[in-house]
Structures are given as structure tokens and as C-alpha cells.
Amino acid sequence: MKKALLLIDLQNDFMPGGALAVPQGNEVIAIANRLQPSFDWVIATQDWHPANHGSFAANNLPQNIGDVINLDGLPQIMWPIHCVQNTNGANFTSDLDTTHINAVFQKGTDPNIDSYSGFFDNGKRKSTGLGNFLLQQGITDVYIMGLALDYCVKFSALDAVTLGFNTYLIADACRAVNLQPTDGTKALAEMEAAGVKIVQSAELYVK
Ligand code: VGL
Ligand code: ZN
Q: Could you tell me how many helices (H) and strands (E) the chain has, helices first?
């Protein structure tokens, strides 16, 4: 058994005050920092959009944030401009300890398709390389935490389980966008039904 900690999208734009703020998103950073020394492998993802990304309402006027459009054949929620490549909003939040991170995978780089999962875009058209990287390292068990529970965390966990990894979701180390107030709890139930094991960070400290 070889374990990896997967840190999903711990970026400025998802923090309070950011462009796509996840309520209480800042509260998971201390947990991320405390967990990292308990894992031999730490892998981070970044939402990493070009400025012309098709998920931004501003690029699809007169659409409003929260509307759903058809983007290259897939339903696409309209988001505020967020996590634009090489901007401060896309940087890891400065409180995050990045010294343990072994690899970073960026997603959402194609303007015509969004990528909630750290493994594949929303149409499973292209992979980010994360799955093959984990296989190459011999990693069998993936522990997932971060933002947002109801989007990027959920789809990363569902893909991890589909790819055959023993997949754990660290529930207290995630926060939801909650466009609908029950989205976070629904996401947990969906992951559990798919075979993701729900754990708490306190169970995982070995160092
Ligand atoms: C995310 C919406 C749009 C996320 C990224 O990281 O959960 N959500 N882009
Ligand atoms: Zn995004």
C-alpha cells in the first residue's frame, strides 16, 4: 500500500474575498499543512484557466453567473472570472505550506471545456496526466481534500475510484460552494455511494 494526499485547488480565488469564494475555504489550509508530513506523496491541483475560458459568464454575455449554457456539447455553469493562469488568484494561497508538494497538475486549460476533476476534463476528452503519474509511482491509496467539495473535490474522487484507486475523502478538510444549500451533503452521499470512503483528518496523522 502506497498513499498519496491530493490537495484540490487551494488557490486564492477560492478563499474568502476571492473571485469564486468558497465559504470558510480558508479553514482547510491549516488541516492541509498539518496532514502533509503524514504522507510520502503530496500532489496538488490548480484550476488554471486561460482568460478566454468558456466557463466565465463574462465570455458568454449576456449570460449571468449561475446560468447554464451548452459549451461544445456539454452543459456548463457560468462562473465568475477565476483562476486565470499566472495571476494572483490562481496562486496557491500564501498560508499553504508548499514545501511537501511533489507534483502539481493543472486543469481547465482548454477554453472550450471545463475540468472539475483533477484527472480528466468534464467530457473525459483529455487526461491531465495525474492518473498515470499515480500509477507510475505505485500509489494505490488516494486521500482527497480541498475545494470545492461539490465540484472539483467530488469529480476528482469519483474519477479516482473509477480508475481503481482506494479512494478516501477527508470530509473535515473540504468546503462546498453550495449554490444550493444541500450541494455539499449531496456530494458526500454521491461519493460514498460510488465507493469513496469518508474519513476525518484526525484519523490520518502518523507524524
Ligand atoms: C471549481 C468551479 C469552477 C472548483 C473550479 O475548484 O471546485 N469550481 N472552477
Ligand atoms: Zn474553474
A: 4, 8
